[in-house]
Amino acid sequence: MVESPDLPLLPYRIENGVKCFELVAGVVQQELLPGLFMQGYGYNGSIPGPTIVVETGDMVQIRVINRLPEPTTVHWHGLDVPNAMDGVPPFEPSPLIEPGYGLDYRFRIVNPPGTHMYHSHYETIRQEMMGLGGLLIITNRHERHTAKDFAYMLQEFHLTGLPKGELRPGIYAVDPLSDGFNFFTMNGRCFPNTSPLYVRRGDCIRIRLANLGMQGHPMHLHGVQMLETAYDGNEIPPWNRLRKSTVFVAPGETRDVQFDAWNPGRWPFHCHIPHHNSNNFTLPAGGMFTTIQVGD
């Protein structure tokens, strides 16, 4: 069972054999740190949006309702879908979703199990950087090897009105056109507001990583080595897998890693770019950082 810490899984209902989901795009106030919110664009009340979990062979319908003050679309990043369902107007026949309207994206999941994303593909310089994205994961119900399966969306934002080096409670606007990022998130939160992962010693653990932002993130795990098992939703053959302590996730990419949790303790897992480990350039550890507790 996939878990996306601090994010819900998107519920669905089955109608005539079709898995039916609903995404609502709207203005969202996302709590990065206790009392500190950013106002951006999200789905179903969160940035990133809820995680969609499907299986190969599923017929899905994802109804997208637009409650934004502007048109939008959804692109199913990495999925092989019909041209009209790909969500990139005006280059494809997929239509815009005007404010107050909805659109049913309907397609069969033909990709093998893997980690993917969904995000706006209309005026992306604004809408992606305002937060419009989420995880889409194709699982394998017959897999038994992995005891825990975690998924993270990596994002960065520039919040305005907050002096550099200060953290004050409040609601701050996102400047999507700035590349001077001051907050770096894992599933929409900054450390120490990220939820720690708890795993049992000896278990095989998977972590899925997706990068929807502008900057690359070398994700580093303390205490054990990671085996890189997939990229962009495609499995790496066992004879080509590399064992690493740091895995680089470039913009637009996904990476899957696995490790055996043999070493007990509380271990940091974080981006290794120093500025990405702070909250608005304050000195305590923050940003794209969480911990993994390995115990009995």
TrEMBL record:
InterPro entries: Cu-oxidase-like_N, Cu-oxidase_C, Cu-oxidase_fam, Cupredoxin. PANTHER family: MULTI-COPPER OXIDASE, MULTICOPPER OXIDASE LPR1. It comes from Paenibacillus montanisoli. It comes from the Bacteria. One of its GO terms (molecular function) is oxidoreductase activity. The lineage of its organism: Bacteria, Bacillati, Bacillota, Bacilli, Bacillales. This is Copper oxidase. GO terms for cellular component: outer membrane-bounded periplasmic space. SUPFAM superfamilies: Cupredoxins (SSF49503). Residues 39-141, 184-281 form the Plastocyanin-like domain.
